[in-house]
């Protein structure tokens, strides 16, 4: 026997239809309302997390800035003040670029000798070096080592400068801003972040920090940069921790400290004026006191391959 409901005529069924549609629509609106609320709440939570993250970063950076200032103060006390003076560095930007190529993989003394010998061999200037034979240039810079690699590198830069500017000098970039000079110098083959930063800081007196092996190693051990930050990355990160007028001094001090105390293989921590600030030292000390094995990967500071401090 057919049920009362199935016995209803199609017209009667139609009469029920609008009510059911309205109910499902209402449910749909309610559901999408919940979803909207949920999405809004998620968005607010995300914003909150982002803001908290930004605040944390800001606090962390402020802490590192304070630490960098303390380190710089202690090194100034230990090694004396270091102030940039224009008269200590040559004014010739192209000469500075050549000098930094000559300084690669050799001592300051040897690269200075090679530079002086090059100027002596070609008194007519960089145009003469550009058009000379590569053998003559290599012979002139022999005192600096790797002459057969550096001579063609220097001539390639001089040639590039000549082709771009129609003359063999770089005086026209002197008034450009820091980033424009950095990018321009780095566009020459063989000129990296450190070389460009050296020219900017030493020869033009700009607040740009070159990161060489000493600056990189000491900054990592101190915990001013993380253990996996590369020297190239440190060129952007470290200057943010320093006032412009401390950048030159910080650079010179860290090199001095790396050479005199914070050696690559056996840092002389017992005699270190910034021992209290050093993550590398404090991680080791904590491991010794607690009897735990030395952390092979300290959270910040020295890389694992480095030896125990004396
Ligand atoms: S405490 Fe040791 S590792 Fe740290 S900066 Fe000084 S010499 Fe270098």
Explain this structure:
By secondary structure, this protein is mainly α. It folds into two domains: 68-84 and 208-310, Orthogonal Bundle (Endonuclease Iii, domain 2), CATH 1.10.1670.10; 87-204, Orthogonal Bundle (Endonuclease III, domain 1). Helix content is 61%, strand content 0%. The protein has twelve helices and no strands. It has helices spanning 10-79, 93-102, 108-121, 126-131, 134-140, 147-165, 178-186, 193-203, 213-222, 231-237, 247-260, 279-290. The longest helix has 70 residues, at 10-79. The radius of gyration is 32 Å and the shape is extended. The protein starts with 9 loop residues before the first helix and ends in a 20-residue tail after the last helix. The protein binds iron/sulfur cluster. The site of iron/sulfur cluster has 15 residues, from α9 and α12.
């Amino acid at each position: 026997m057919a049920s009362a409901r199935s016995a209803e005529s199609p017209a009667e069924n139609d009469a029920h239809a609008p009510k059911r549609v309205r109910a499902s629509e209402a449910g749909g609106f309610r559901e999408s309302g919940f979803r909207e609320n949920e999405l809004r709440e998620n968005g607010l939570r995300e914003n909150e997390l982002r803001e908290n993250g930004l605040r944390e970063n800001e606090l962390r950076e402020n802490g590192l800035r304070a630490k960098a200032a303390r380190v710089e103060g202690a090194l100034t006390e230990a090694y004396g003040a270091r102030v940039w003076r224009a008269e200590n560095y040559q004014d010739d930007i192209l000469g500075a670029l050549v000098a930094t190529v000559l300084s690669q993989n050799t001592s300051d003394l040897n690269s200075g000798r090679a530079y002086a010998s090059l100027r002596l061999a070609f008194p007519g200037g960089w145009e003469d070096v550009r058009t000379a034979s590569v053998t003559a240039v290599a012979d002139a810079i022999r005192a600096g080592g790797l002459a057969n690699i550096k001579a063609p590198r220097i001539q390639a830069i001089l040639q590039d400068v000549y082709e771009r500017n129609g003359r063999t000098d770089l005086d026209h970039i002197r008034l450009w801003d820091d980033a424009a000079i950095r990018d321009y110098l780095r566009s020459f083959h063989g000129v990296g972040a450190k070389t460009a930063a050296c020219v900017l800081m030493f020869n033009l007196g700009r607040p740009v920090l070159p990161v060489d092996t000493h600056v990189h190693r000491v900054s990592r051990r101190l915990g001013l940069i993380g253990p996996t930050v590369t020297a190239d990355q440190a060129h952007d990160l470290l200057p943010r921790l320093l006032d412009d007028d401390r950048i030159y001094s910080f650079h010179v001090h860290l090199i001095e400290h790396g050479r005199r105390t914070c050696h690559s293989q056996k840092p002389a921590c017992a005699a270190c004026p910034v021992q209290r600030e050093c993550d590398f030292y404090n991680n080791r000390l904590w491991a010794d006191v607690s009897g735990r094995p030395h952390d092979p990967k300290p959270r910040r500071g020295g890389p694992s391959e480095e030896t125990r401090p004396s």
